[in-house]
Amino acid sequence: MTKRQQETINELRNESKELRRILMKIKQAVKCPYCLSIVSIRHGKRYTKKGIIQRYECLACHRKFMIREDSFRMRHDSKIINKAVELYEKGYSTREITNKLNENISHVTVSRWIRDFKTLPMEAQRIK
Ligand SMILES: [Zn+2]
Question: Among the residues of 1-128, which ranges form H helices?
């Protein structure tokens, strides 16, 4: 492999990391139930018997809505997800990744992360 090819691969890898980070942010974003805008801000918390309720204000339509914390929050750390995707891009199978992560995560979950977050273009791997 030439130096230029190696540089191209590194560039693509960095770009795909950045894309993955943005993608995660979007997936974690809270949608307004009225206008479906994802531009909302946190607007205080309420503690109830059923758990924590997070209040939001939509910046598009200015309506307020509530979401139970546990129902929307991503259950797994983005670090673990990144690690899983990186292992996949190195050529490990989802079952191998599941074993390596050792985090009590099912391989179905790992497969879903890879489907949702893998962004490295296949061409970059073929140059090798
Ligand atoms: Zn709205």
Answer: 3-28, 69-72, 78-89, 94-101, 107-117, 122-126
Cα of 83 to ligand 1 centre, how many Å? 34
Q: How far is the CA of 57 from the centre of ligand 1 (A)?
A: 8
Average pLDDT over residues 98-119: 82
What's the 31 CA to ligand 1 centre distance in angstroms?
Answer: 8
* Distance in Å, CA 67 to ligand 1 centroid: 14
Show the domain range for 89.
78-121
Sign for the CA dihedral angle at 103, 105, 111, 116 comes to negative
Q: Indicate the number of domains in the chain.
A: 3
Residue 52 Cα to ligand 1 midpoint, Å, equals 22
pTM: 0.43
- 18 and 37 part of one domain: no
Find the 21 Cα to ligand 1 centroid distance in Å: 25
- Highest mean predicted confidence (pLDDT) among 61-70, 91-100, 108-117: 91-100
Same domain, 63 and 40: yes
Same domain (yes/no): 40, 19? no
> Does the structure show a pLDDT above 90 at 85?
no
